[in-house]
Amino acid sequence: MWSTAEIGIDLGTANLLVYTKDKGIVINEPSVVALNTETKEVLAVGTEAKNMVGKTPANIIAVRPLRDGVIADFDVTSDLLKAVMRKASKKLGLSMRKPNVVVCAPSGSTSVERRAILDAVRSCGAKNVHIIEEPVAAAIGSDLPVSEPIANVVVDIGGGTTEVAIISFGGVVSCNSVRVGGDKLDDAIIQYVRKQYNILIGERTSEQVKMEIGYTPIEHEELTMEVRGRDLVNGLPKTITLTSSEIQSALHESMVQLLEAIRATLENCPPELSGDIVDRGVMVTGGGALLNGMQEWLSDEISVPVHLAPSPLESVAIGTGRSLKFIDKLQKATV
Predict the structure, then answer these.
(1) Contact of 294 with 283, CB cutoff 8 Å
(2) Which residues line the annotated binding site for ATP?
(3) How far is it, in rounded angstroms, from Cα 100 to Cα 108?
(4) For the chain, where are the alpha helices, taking DSSP H only?
(5) Is residue 45 in a domain?
(6) Residue 224 CB neighbour total at 10 angstroms
(7) Which InterPro entries match (predicted)?
(8) Binding site, residues?
(9) Per-residue pLDDT tens for 178-203?
(10) Looking at 250, 270, 285, which one is the last position of a domain?
């Protein structure tokens, strides 16, 4: 065993994943922390805290310290990271003393946001911390040959943001980041149900609806789902039935924004690399890639082959862990 462990962290808006070279993904937990508002004490993190969302008494809040792919609450993020690192070191034994860590940051993040990520990870006792751009990590985790001089197009649809990037020779050639992700889609469903039915549903319910009957703008067989929420007129609980075409129309605007970001990135592509894209196509990864019909819809709209990453939810974390092998090369390309 090496004296220093090497780990990759995907500090995502929705999920926090830890990858190690020997054991693969060791931690995959929602990025949620439950806090006691009076004592500021951390009561639970990850899955346990997510189960509390929308169900806690007044003195306990379940917060998501990462918003739109960046740290919104530094102290809570540090607490979340410390708890996750403790869990990881239990699973990995003694090799986690002073790990070398690679963390990913959105390609559009500012130097202040990157500094916050570095400080949060260092405060957990990491020896060396490197930052890698999220699309590059997603490309490595999706088995794309990022260090070669050919175009690799990655569309990473995360919880807070969607990153679209063309990567060649270890660096980002052209990229766009839009604040459209899983959270925005959940919110669109909540707003639609509120407007249409005068019923308020929670975040977890809308996420469930999105996963089960959410569709991109393609033709599909109609599905229905029963949803429970609070009637805004009389305040009583109520059950309604939603159809997949309703949810499709609720998500339509966000889908259009996502498509515009992909088109804008492809328009800025150097002509030499455009030829590669026609042959090799686009790789879609991140949790949003699992939305029903995503692959079909995109290939119709942009007329190039669209591939789904082998494990969309984990590819960024796998990429951060693997990138340690050629971090020097990558950093030369991004400096």
Answers:
(1) no
(2) 13-15, 159-161, 207-210, 287-290
(3) 24
(4) 47-50, 74-92, 111-122, 134-141, 182-197, 203-213, 244-267, 271-280, 294-302, 315-322, 327-334
(5) yes
(6) 13
(7) ATPase_NBD, MreB, MreB_MamK-like
(8) 13-15, 159-161, 207-210, 287-290
(9) 889 999 999 999 999 999 999 999 98
(10) 250
